Amino acid sequence: MIKGVKVMLIPKNKQNTLMFQSAGVKRFAFNWALAREQENYKNGGKFISDNDLRKEFTQLKKIDEYKWLNETSNNVSKQAIKDACIAYKRFFKGQAKFPKFKSKKKSEPKFYQDNIKIQFTETHVKFEGFSSSTKKNKQKLNWIKLAETNRIPFGKDAKYVNPRCSHNGLNWFISVGVEFSNNTSVPVNENIGIDLGIKDLAICSDNITYKNINKTKKVRKLEKRKKRLQRQVSRKYDNLKENKVSIKGEKPKKTKNIIKLERIIKTVQHKLNGIRDNYTQQTTSEIIRREPSHISIEDLNVSGMMKNKHLAKAIQQQSFYEFRRQLEYKSSWNNIELRIIDRWYPSSKTCHDCGYIKKDLNLSDREWICPDCGIIHDRDMNASLNIRDCDKYKIYKIA
């Protein structure tokens, strides 16, 4: 079983420069390979294999104009050419859209590291190609500090798959697939039904509720700060348009204050994303640790729900798809069956005790009384119990 692990890096200034340089080489090699494939296709030629393109690229690096390509690891450009060929093949097979050329301004800086040569310790990761010197003080350049310790297994037995470095506008990250032994134990505890909502993130049938993290003081404070900063940037852009008359077709250049404010906004957004992602990870892991024999969850029409302008932002912040995605892979790791309930099943409107369906139930009704048996239902808890017992009606599919 291969598990993906992603950890933030803390590079020094020179390491940071070399990483951006590697990302630049990767972008150039990808664009070059894609351009060669397009040119060859227009001239009536057949698909050029990545092996032939690599040989051609090696000859290109011998030209004085392109000698700067030799300053990074050979594996960076090789993998970029392979990625371009795979993307090109997928288009002709009808599996994806036509691959786009990577832009220096818009595309995310990223590059590949060789899965055999890469090394990990408790606190550092060793990259290839940063320094070829055998001196100890020069070799330190290859070792980059990890923001979290003991997250990635290391040693002789550790096997890595497809290590990639990426930059999100603020920080560098390394993501790598790590081989783990398969889990053979089968959980036998009570089943769990989960009702996702806006008031609370998840209401479980075993009477445990996970609150909405976006209603906490910390998140609200950060959201307020982000709004204030966005207004400042907007005003500065308006002033720039009024005071500086630009040439037709050209946008006015950003001032240093605008660049500074935009970076602060990115930092605030990064904090918000981190808080939300961490909470989702903790919630899903806690549900899995209870070891139920199966978990049931609704198949929500999130895109349809987002059309409600009053609730769109709240729904977006809850990240329902991400919650389901994490449950899917964590359930498969732990041999737990994940059942996806039909989206048209009226889980909130159906009385769990007698099966009566209250058709006139509104979204604002948080509690309702069953006209048939007289039981008072909490809307969300009743829905989670109905979702848990979905096997009675056979209205689910296995993820």
Structure overview:
This protein is an alpha+beta fold. It folds into two domains: 2-179, no CATH class; 185-399, no CATH class. It contains ten helices and 15 strands. The chain has helices at residues 13-42, 50-60, 74-92, 136-139, 217-243, 256-289, 302-305, 312-318, 320-333, 379-388; strands at 2-10, 110-112, 119-120, 124-126, 143-146, 160-167, 172-179, 192-196, 200-204, 209-211, 294-298, 337-341, 367-369, 376-378, 396-398. The chain has a seven-stranded antiparallel sheet with strand order 2-6-7-1-5-4-3. Strand 13 and strand 14 form a beta hairpin. Helix 1 packs parallel to helix 3 and helix 5 (217-243) packs antiparallel against helix 6 (256-289). The model has no long low-confidence stretch (mean pLDDT 90).
Which labels suit this protein?
7-stranded antiparallel beta sheet, 2 domains, alpha+beta
Q: How many H/I helices? A: 10
State the end-to-end distance: 18 Å
Q: Quick one: how many beta strands? A: 15
Percentage of residues in strands:
15-25%
H-E string: EHHHEEEHEEEEEEHHEHHHEEEHE
* Largest sheet data: 7 strands, antiparallel
Radius of gyration: 26 Å
Oligomer: single chain
